[in-house]
Write a structure and sequence with these properties.
Helix 6 packs across helix 7 and helix 10 crosses helix 12. The chain is elongated, with a radius of gyration of 29 Å. The strands form 4 sheets. Strands 6, 10, 11, 14, 15, 16, 17, 18 and 19 form a 9-stranded mixed sheet that branches. A 5-stranded mixed β-barrel has the order 1-2-3-5-4. A 3-stranded antiparallel sheet has the order 7-9-8, with no helix packed on it. Helices cover about 35% and strands about 25% of the residues. It is α+β, with helices and mostly antiparallel strands and about 525 residues long. A hairpin with a 2-residue loop joins strand 12 and strand 13. It binds one RNA strand of 75 nucleotides through helix 1, strand 1, strand 2, strand 3 and helix 5.
Length: about 525
Amino acid sequence: MASLEEQITQRRAHLDALVQLGVPAYPNRFDRRHTVSELVQAHGSRTGEELDADRPETVTSGRILGIRSFGKANFLVISDGLLRLQVYIRQDSLPALDFKIFQLLDFGDWVGVEGRLFRTKTNELTVWAARLHFLAKCHLPLPEKWHGLTDVEIRYRQRYLDLIVNPESRQVFEVRSKVVTAIREFMTTRGYVEVETPMMQPIAGGALARPFVTHHNALDMELFLRIAPELYLKRLVVGGFDRVFEINRNFRNEGISTQHNPEFTMMEFYQAYADYHQLMQMTEELVATVAQRVNGSDRVLFNGHQISLAAPFARLSLREAARDAASTRLGRDVPMASLRSRDLAAALARELGIEVDAGAGAGRIATELFERLCEDRLIQPTFVHDFPTEVSPLSKQRPDDPETVERFELYIGGFEVANAFSELNDPREQRRRFEDQLKERAGGDAEAHQMDEDYVRALEYGLPPTAGEGIGIDRLVMLLTGSPSIRDVILFPLMRHLSSRDATDVAADATDPSV
RNA sequence: GACCUGGUAGCUCAGUGGUAGAGCAUCUGACUUUUAAUCAGAGGGUCGCGGGUUCGAUCCCCGCCCGGGUCACCA
């Protein structure tokens, strides 16, 4: 007996046998006193003598990840998903029924255990079971206990399996949760109010990206999944929420890569009376605080790089970065003026072998040069600031240079982690910027911004001086967990459909009682 | 979208133009402090799917499906 079907049949037979013994197949509750993790944390450092002195009793539970059987003496390894604990099953220490239950258990089953803690001869912390309770059946064989599950496709499609057998995967998502908690606390203690704004929007605004389209039946209305919460959050600042933030998903209908998932989590926040300089400072503080909080260190190892997340971060102007990189590449001094004139910039791009859109102005070309020449080299945290106005339709210009806006992006590990700017709050200038975007849209740029009349109207009521920022949570978690792919920090990353036969899934057949 | 690369037992992986292999898991037996338990035995496969070449294909060729990576595009 060994094929998958046979193993499933065997496991079901074990469950049927339990029912024959009068054991409930699916009991409704189990009153556990301690989790496995609590027991390990409370007693993991205590000696056998100490345990024998006060004989701590417990009622605990978990999934069986190991069975070692010696006939009348047996060991289980149970896990609460985080830590593991051994259980000693001795035939003459248990009621006869409980021992029969033990004999019908399979790897992966859920059990409850009552007993006292002790240490075995090999000094392993162990529960000496006085009672054993059956809690739920695992009908399917688990991946191997030693190598775990390494097939990334199964790890992503069936994350539950990954979590059962790969503790390091569980750890990543524990860290992710702590990151969100730490950020939320960081923000709320600074007086930011957490809000929720629409994810279904009639105009997908606030970023330059292609949206997903959906439809509301009763209203017969086309809607877009949001690409950013930005315009709604700023409406709230107009309404008097002078510090707001939101942590939730954005959706962008674009390519997938190690750094891009179609839905991703962003923390976006707005602060009235602040400008982008203050946000740089706050961002340094936030990143270092969160790192300390979740890892106990502001240093991380990412893709083989030791990265220091301690403030202050490097600061680099976008055009200077592009000019310096271009100079190095060409072996001559490229004058800054080359990035300010459309014709000179286009010639420079040609010289560097970088293609740019025919309609691109000097600002877009300079940005393109930066992205192509500099971006992936920014391993240590770096604020790249002062973006061209042309690529920043919602940002406020520098008073001394209208071609440049007060905007920065934070790069760590070679990719963008945050994007922030002083918010454009002049409604007439905003309308003009939207109109420029409409021209680009008419020219075929599907990512150009649409006109949002209500947003302009909100600005007409008056947005105080405000700075805002978006921080990519997935990417921050990648850095803090050393995960090279965004799919490793998203519980259920988007995957293609399997064929209908495969998607039916052997498991579905196996657990269907009608089969 | 282009290129590179992978898909063999429940899992981790070998392998070959001539009836398909290991370890773990499974099943049978032994074993009252083991821990990747051990020992003895047994079973388990549409070699991703579909064509082609061949006396014969898991292997060679073509197409497709599903992953992973690099680039392009984006955040």
